[in-house]
Specification:
five-stranded antiparallel sheet, alpha+beta
Length: 157
């Protein structure tokens, strides 16, 4: 009876070691803005060009105009084959007035985000859908033999 206990203990020990070896893979994406860099942005004084020199190119611009720039940073962790989990997310929004001077700076974190539902529908395309056999039969005789329809052509290119 000691042999089954040993094999069970060995199996549990190996499983524990295997699970313990699964360290998470941490990924950092986007602009991670240092606090001292953000402090250099002064509403009413800093221009778009100065913001770009201080913070770099934004991650994205506002959808409808270029008066809002967004710098997005996200840190994720993934263990083995499981889906990645977002650990932190910071977004800095820089708003500009009509003359291109900073009007305001807003900061958001993971608590401010909202999940987005992805829609799996497909847009139908115009035309007839053909089966594989219809495609094969439809291509018979349509292959180029390398000859041109020019009567003076002798197969030379």
């Amino acid at each position: 009876m000691t042999k089954p206990i040993r094999s069970t203990a060995t199996a549990l020990l190996l499983a524990g070691v295997a699970l313990g070896a699964c360290a998470p893979i941490v990924n950092q994406h986007g602009h991670q803005i240092a606090t001292e860099k953000l402090a250099e942005i002064r509403p009413g004084a800093t221009t778009k060009d100065e913001v770009q020199q201080i913070l770099g190119t934004p991650s994205t611009l506002s959808t409808f105009n270029d008066r809002s720039w967004f710098y997005v940073s996200r840190r994720t962790a993934q263990v083995a084959f499981f889906a990645p989990e977002t650990k932190s997310q910071e977004t800095v929004a820089i708003d500009f007035d009509a003359s291109g001077v900073v009007a305001g700076v807003r900061q958001f974190d993971l608590r401010d985000s909202q999940p987005v539902e992805h829609v799996a529908r497909q847009t139908p395309s115009v035309g007839k859908e053909m089966t594989f056999i219809e495609q094969l039969i439809g291509n018979i005789g349509k292959f180029n033999t390398g000859r041109r329809s020019d009567p003076g052509n002798r197969g030379e290119i």
